[in-house]
Design goal:
It contains 13 helices and 14 strands. The protein is an alpha+beta fold. Helix 1 crosses helix 11.
Amino acid sequence: MNLLMLISVAWIALKVNLLRSILTMLGIIIGVAAVIIMLALGSGARYEVDQQIKNLGGNVFIVMSRPRFMGGAQQASGGQSLTEMDALAIATQIPQVTVAAPTVQSSGQVIYGNMNWAPSILGVDNNIYQAQSWSIAEGRTFTDSELSSAGRVAVIGQTVKRELFGASDALGQTIRINKVPVTIIGVLNGKGQNTQGNDQDDLVFMPIDTVRKRISGITLSSPKAVRSIIVQVADERDMRLVEQEMDALLRQRLRTTANDQPFRIRNLSEMVETRAQTMQIFNGLLAAVASVSLLVGGIGIMNIMLVSVTERTREIGLRMAVGAKPADIMRQFLIEAVLLCALGGALGLSLAMAVTWSVEHFLGYTAIIQPEVVVMSIGFSALIGVFFGYYPAKKAARLQPIEALRYE
């Protein structure tokens, strides 16, 4: 009997007991589907993290200002420890830093006609675009004159444009922010949500002095004080070194004591990576639990194949009587087990694809089924067929033709 004939005989045997074959495959179907779904969610999480790091601008620190304290009491309201000069010092005195962008944050109502919205309002300079990988979809960035004279201009995110203008053109329109008339000169390309689910496009960029003098209405401890500095490093291998150098430089400039901490340095890429690793560990544990279904499915297939050998004892005896060798009988039952598992793996893959599609379209999670996972799942399910089908096949091959023909 050649291979094609053995596969044909195995297929007929499975079709004769179709319901039993389907029930036998359930363990493999569920196991393969569960493993693929978990790996797809893990790959999706990895992709989201990569996109988030890309949106952050790669290797990014945020140096956040904290209020200064004197004698245990906080200094004047709104006092910030960091200034624009500190950002300039970081950019010029630390060679590994590509850009340092100072920012001032505010809030307020943005009004256009009878529409209003409350986005995040950030006072920035043009370094922000490189520091966080922002790009302009329409219009332009700020001119040097607008930055130095606290110009009443703004660059808005896609969410703000959609909420205030819909499909209309936003460039050149005048909006009011906390009663201050502001002209829109640019619209940012969209970034979507970050890993915390916050909308990154719901913001307004304005010249840093404009926010400080016209929008915030807060008296800062220094006319050049900033809320944070976004620092981009050229090479991720220098992140730890740059963090140490920034800490030493800022402590020297701010004349801080060991117990005073007027700023905080946050490594955004490291935070996102840590979150991704946690998710991958969790998904790995779920995949390991799901793999138990494959083991249970394999045991079920071995049990059914043993029953099949018992039920078909007379058939085995007849095949041997007309010239079938023990190796032919063994290959026949082994191919049945492998075919059963391979079909279960294919159906499990189909189920996994349907579930991941539903997860992406209805729940909003990213799930990526990689080609190597597909090959691995089908191959692994076939391997289970070989492993758990070997003993029943060997038992069938050891039957004596005369005893098999006499079997009732």
